[in-house]
Amino acid sequence: MVIYFATSNEHKFKEANEILSAKGISVEHFNFKHNEIRSDSLEEIAMEAVDTTFAQLKKPVFVEDTGLFIDALNGFPGTYSAWALKKIGSDGILKLLKSASNRAATFKTCIAFANGKITKTFLGECKGAIATKKRGKSGFGYDPIFTPKGYKKTFAEDLEIKVKVSHRFAALQKLTEFLKA
Fold first, then answer.
1. Residue 158 a catalytic site member
2. Cα of 84 vs its chain's centroid, Å
3. Distances (CA, A) of 18 to 12, 54, 124, 154, 161
4. Ordered alpha helix ranges (H), 4-62
5. Domains of the chain, residue spans
6. 124-153: buried (b, 16+ CB within 10 Å) or exposed (e) per residue?
7. Could you give the 3-state DSSP secondary structure of residue 19?
8. What DSSP assignment string belongs to 137-175?
9. Would the pTM of this model clear 0.90, i.e. be above it?
10. How far apart are CA 94 and CA 72, in angstroms?
11. The domain 2-180 is classified under which CATH number: 3.40.640.10, 3.40.50.1010, 1.10.3720.10, 3.90.950.10?
12. Peptide bond into 144 cis (omega under 30)
């Protein structure tokens, strides 16, 4: 089975391709530029994007939307994570949390899949905390400042941890189970 992953983020494609190909699912990259809707719901954003993508591609396709929800910032940056990363970066997030004692955060991913017969979403999350400084050189985005619950290293310090426990991995597992059923 071949499915398409519509994303303009090469890092996300590479990560998803590694996970899905290990499960016997062939993934093709559809470089999709899209004016994402603004919403506080990852699911709403992903559903709108997959509907738009399927209308263009007419082949089985999935999209994903991811957000970093930080407790001390009332869930910010949440669905605005990519925008916040471009505007203030990880350093800006660390500044916002400089005096925060509660550093709890949750990464959430919503994958939306469409094949012309069904449109379905798959949610994944990873609880953890925001580090006090950037650590590690691997990964992308907020990986240098996010430490998953039960671990001492950030995603950027140990990509093997990310592959095992990340929000994207959890959502892709659910997509895989659906596709194989």
1. no
2. 15
3. 10, 23, 17, 20, 14
4. 10-21, 42-57
5. 2-180
6. bbbebbbbeebbbeebebbbbbbbbeebeb
7. helix
8. SSSSTTGGGEEETT-SS-TTT-HHHHHHH-HHHHHHHHH
9. yes
10. 12
11. 3.90.950.10
12. no
Residue with tokens 């990873």: 126
Determine phi and psi for 65, rounding to 5 degrees: -130, 135
Name the phi and psi angles at 9, rounded to 5: -100, 105
SS3 41: coil
pLDDT one digit per residue (tens) for the chain, 181 residues: 789 999 988 888 998 999 999 999 999 999 887 888 999 999 999 999 999 999 999 999 999 999 999 999 999 999 999 999 999 999 999 999 999 999 999 999 999 999 999 999 999 999 999 999 999 999 899 999 999 999 999 999 998 999 899 999 999 999 999 999 8
Using CA atoms, how far apart are residues 53 and 67, in angstroms rounded to an integer? 20
Marked catalytic residue, from 40, 65, 91, 158:
65
